[in-house]
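Homework help thread (please don't just give me the answer)

Our assignment gives two proteins as sequence + structure token strings and asks us to describe the second one. The first is just a warm-up. Here they are:
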Amino acid sequence: MLVHGASPDGRGRNPREEGVVHLSAQATKEHSYPEESVLMEAVVGRENMRRALKRVETNKGAPGVDQMSVTQLRGHLKEHWPRIKEDLLDGRYQPAPVRRVQIPKPGGGMRELGIPTVVDRLIQQGLRQVLGPIFEPGFSESSYGFRPGRSAHQAVLKARACVAKGRRFVVDLGLEKFFDRVNHDILMSRVALKVRDKRVLKLIGRYLRAGIFKHGMTQPRTEGTPQGGPLSPLLSNVMLDELDRELERRGHRFCRYADDVNIYVRTRRSGERVMASITRFLEDRLKLRVNRDKSAVDRPWKRKFLGYSMTWHREPRLRTAPESVRRLKAKLKSLFRQGRGRNLGRFVREDLTPLRRGWLNYLRLAEAKGVFKELDGWIRRRLRTILWRQWKRTCTRARNLMRLRLGEERAWRSATNGRGPWWNAGASHMNHALPKKHFDALGLVSLQDQHRQLQRTT
């Protein structure tokens, strides 16, 4: 049993786990590495696996190929964990294939995910918790993605600081299908520089090669690290750390978040040279492809980075990238279609508010505020459109407009104008009948007001 079961020696203690926690902590502190004989023991150690189980249960997620859900995991481990643990310690464990899932990319197209079984997610999480402290101290200060204590917001602020210091051109590099094209041999050679336990190396290699289950068949994998498992983010940073070191060796100012890399330079000409040389480095040294359609040398205010852009001023200000606004509007339009037949107050509270809050929390660093005012007006107009559709009949529209303090003559003239819902939602009679304070009463706090409050508390 994983959490409370007896250990092999019958005294509540496993001799193979003695000293594991102490050695791992000491190795992390001194930036050395655990001995080969204890690294896998650290992975399957009781406390490490307890933390991993809690994390997997918190993250939830879809079942893998065996259809076992997260809620079934504890019961499965009570019966099967001793065998799984022994297989891991003896180097015999074989991961299950990953379940192929495709989700839409924000910029168009589809992204392929590989969903491991919940047992494999547990083991990968345990690996990540032990390997993370080994690799983390060596990662670049300019790397922000998938790292404890680091965030996209920090990367965006660093980007703005680079531009403020006179680097007014950006080499915006995007990698083409990075997670699908990671070279296994190159990645494993980087992992092996700091991991000496052959059982751990063998297990990581098996996870990389775990087949993809689709259309009832398992297809072998010879490259890539499947997005969807807890170990992939750490492996992506291990792979791209060599790029970070190359950029530092050349003296560049840059920000990297996962496979999005922005390098800040002073002239377009130097940017073009950097683009050409780094593209060669990535393709020759790491066997990765640059997405030439999405990469460019340009002014930072003409590009986006992690949902943000910036102004052209000498002291640039962060602003919401136009694409971020388009994505929000697309999601909201889908919600508005679902909300046509619902109570408007409940729709605002249960559907609209959580989406808007999450979007604004991420983009709270934006200093150019006009976009929030524009979105507030657009959202209120959409809600007025829903009401106009719900009222349907001419007499209902007239009565409701009069109930909302419009004069009788104006109410009937508006109800019989023959125009469509969108036009009426933007017309003066609906704005007069349903002003901002009407939606405030429904719980629709304006983005502009929320943004002002967030900036005061940040």
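The one we have to describe:
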Amino acid sequence: MSIGKLVSFDSSRGFGFIRPEDGGPDVFVHVNDIGLDEDELRQGRVFEFEVTEGDRGPKAVNLTAVGGQPAPAAPVRHRNRERNSGPLTAAEHRRLITELLLDASPALTAGEILTIRDRLTSFADQHGWLEN
């Protein structure tokens, strides 16, 4: 079993990513594999989970909330972005890049998506394109 924090979840598409506590790469999670009601999935919540090998790389299954903690009350903030509306946060950038990669190339594995996303986020940060 692994422990990690849900760092993103798109309820309209039914998937997200968990960042393992041990510092490994983020793990893909899909609503059909979790064993929980979707309304229990809140960004920042800590889960215990098993990791299996999916079609696109490692994925989390059999999630259990750690410590019976309540889900954060505040919804995940999504800004309505317009041209020149200012820099993105790193978390917003990662979420948007993940969605773009999944739309652009469904054949990418979770590991490939994470590698590309992390390199693009690092590049954007080095150029001052992200909020600090």
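TA reply:
I won't write it for you, but here's a hint about the kind of observation we're looking for: The longest helix spans residues 110-126.
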